Structures are given as structure tokens and as C-alpha cells.
Amino acid sequence: MKFTTEKPLRIGTRCSELALWQARQVQDQLSMLGVPSELVPLKAQGDVLLHKPLYELGITGVFTRHLDAAMLAGEIDIAVHSMKDVPTRLPQGIVQAAVLPRANHCDILVFQAQQNADDLLQYFQENSALVATSSPRRAAQWLNRYPHHHVVDLRGNVQTRLQKLKDNRWDGAIFAAAGLERLSLRPAHSLNLDWMIPAPAQGVIMVTANADDSETLALCQQINHAPTALCSGIERDFLYFLEGGCTAPIGAFAHIKGDELHFHGVLLSADGKQKMTVERTLSLSDPALATLAQDSTNQIRQQGGETLLQARKA
């Protein structure tokens, strides 16, 4: 499909270096289709209120709401997001238009440059340690594995958080691998946390558009990566059915191997003392794939998740 409007497609994005990098990936994909575009950087409330933990801001979509408002006001044509930051249900009139192929989904621990990785892991097992993250999901999983450790809050963009790690006497800080790797900022002194279940849709770049903009939606569909869309959709539905916002201690990861889809989900208490998990493997042709997220949340609830979720509401 050809782009028929003379004006360039307006791509809304946050102002951070990482957000702009992500928006340029979408811009490059559209350029390959012959679609002219321009970036429209907009500052988010979540970029401004760096003195508060995210969960204290009291709203979901703290990094996306301003882009939603700009789209509904006709100021931008599409918006580019880190999908894990997007609420599981979009505002009325806005729809998911595309996702790009998923990058590294893992969480990583960045530690002090002078530390040795093997020695640090041994130290973690035997001693109290101080680890930084702003994510309740990461904190809960870390405390579940290392209940004798302490977690401190860490806010700011990627560069700011790396600098704070250097400036403080923390034993490490947890990051999303994709963010550091996209900006070529992943330090050599870092460890893959293969045991940590990522946030739903972690590592996925998402494009949203107006529901009634059929031309833009058709264009975006040409850059959509269907396997990533399937897996991230299941993960986000799992989060939705557990009634968790993007700050809840919930993790989910789905991936396709051969003709099968593998899913792993987790729900924890904030202190990491309670943990419920579910693992499922289904054929891509299995009709049960349509209800995988709902069935998995039911398993979590039956393990005691319902009591934990009710306690969070109280």
C-alpha cells in the first residue's frame, strides 16, 4: 500500500535517548516502504517526576498518556512506545498498529566495575547486599531469591541510573538488557538474570494509531512482526487478567520454538515471600492458545494468587 498523503507521517515519541532510538527504528521501517515521516518528541510526566517511585504517582500509563492525548487531539499520527510501559487496555479510539521483532527480553544485573562476577555471586549467597531497581517485579523476584538482601529505589533514564550506580555503594542495579544494548551502553561488568521472569512485553517496540485511521493502520501492518505480536499479546493478557498494572510484581514471557509456544508466568508478593508460577507449552495449532492467558491466570489464582491479589486491593 502506498502512502497517499503529501504531509509526512507524524511519529510521536518520548524525549529520552532510548525513546528516540526506538522511534527511529519505526521511522526506518516506514522509510523502506517509501513513507515519509517526522519525529514529534513530547515530554512525559514520568520523565519529569524523577523524585518519586513510579508506583507513588498513582496512575498507569505515566509514560504514555501524553502521547495518547496528542494522538486523540490530532497532533500526531502514530506513537512509538516501549510496550512494557503501555497499559494493558488502550484508551478508547487508540489501537495497537504494529510491533517490531522483539529484542533481548532479559533483565540484567550491572555491578561495580571493580567487582568479579563469580565472587559477587558467592557473596550474594552468604551476605547481605544492596541492590537498586524501581521495578516492584524485579525487587520481588530478587528478594524471593535473596531474602537477606535489601532493595533501594532507582529512577531516571538509562544514563542517569548507570551514573547513580557508580556514585553509590550499591552492590548492583537491575536493568532491562534491551535498553542498554540498544544504546550500546551495556557494561562488561554485568550478568544475565536468566532466572528472572521479565515484564510482559519487555524488549518489544509498539506502535499505536487512531482506530479510525485505516490508511495508517494498513501501513503499520506491513511492519508488524506477527510472532512477537502473538507472544506479547499473551503476556499482556496474562497481566490484564491478574488485574495488575505495569508496577505490579507480575512477570510473563512467551516464546515460539519450532511449532510450539512456551509460556512462563509469575505473581509475587511485594516482599518476595510469596511466589506463584505457571508454565505451559502448546502447539501453535492448538485452539487452547486462544485462552492460554486466562487459563494461566486461573492456575495462579488457585495456587493462592487470589488471596494475594485481594490483599493488594485492601
SSE diagram, text form:
Blueprint: E1 9-13, H1 17-32, E2 37-41, H2 45-48, H3 65-72, E3 78-82, E4 94-99, E5 107-110, H4 117-126, E6 130-132, H5 136-145, E7 150-152, H6 158-167, E8 172-176, H7 177-182, E9 190-192, E10 205-210, H8 214-221, H9 226-241, E11 250-257, E12 260-268, E13 275-283, H10 292-313
Parallel strand pairs: 1-2, 1-3, 6-7, 6-8
Antiparallel strand pairs: 3-10, 4-10, 5-8, 5-9, 11-12, 12-13
Helix pairs in contact: 9-10
Short structural description:
By secondary structure, this protein is α/β, with parallel strands linked by helices. The chain has helices spanning 17-32, 45-48, 65-72, 117-126, 136-145, 158-167, 177-182, 214-221, 226-241, 292-313, and strands at 9-13, 37-41, 78-82, 94-99, 107-110, 130-132, 150-152, 172-176, 190-192, 205-210, 250-257, 260-268, 275-283. Helix 9 (226-241) packs parallel to helix 10 (292-313).
Any overview of this molecule?
This protein has 314 residues and is of the alpha/beta class. It has 10 helices and 13 strands. The protein has helices at 17-32, 45-48, 65-72, 117-126, 136-145, 158-167, 177-182, 214-221, 226-241, 292-313, and strands at residues 9-13, 37-41, 78-82, 94-99, 107-110, 130-132, 150-152, 172-176, 190-192, 205-210, 250-257, 260-268, 275-283. The strands form 3 sheets. It has a 5-stranded mixed sheet with strand order 2-1-3-10-4, sandwiched between helices. It has a 5-stranded mixed sheet with strand order 7-6-8-5-9, with helices on both faces. A 3-stranded antiparallel sheet has the order 11-12-13. Helix 9 packs parallel to helix 10. It starts with 8 loop residues before the first strand and ends with a helix. The model is unreliable at 46-50 and 54-60 (pLDDT under 50).
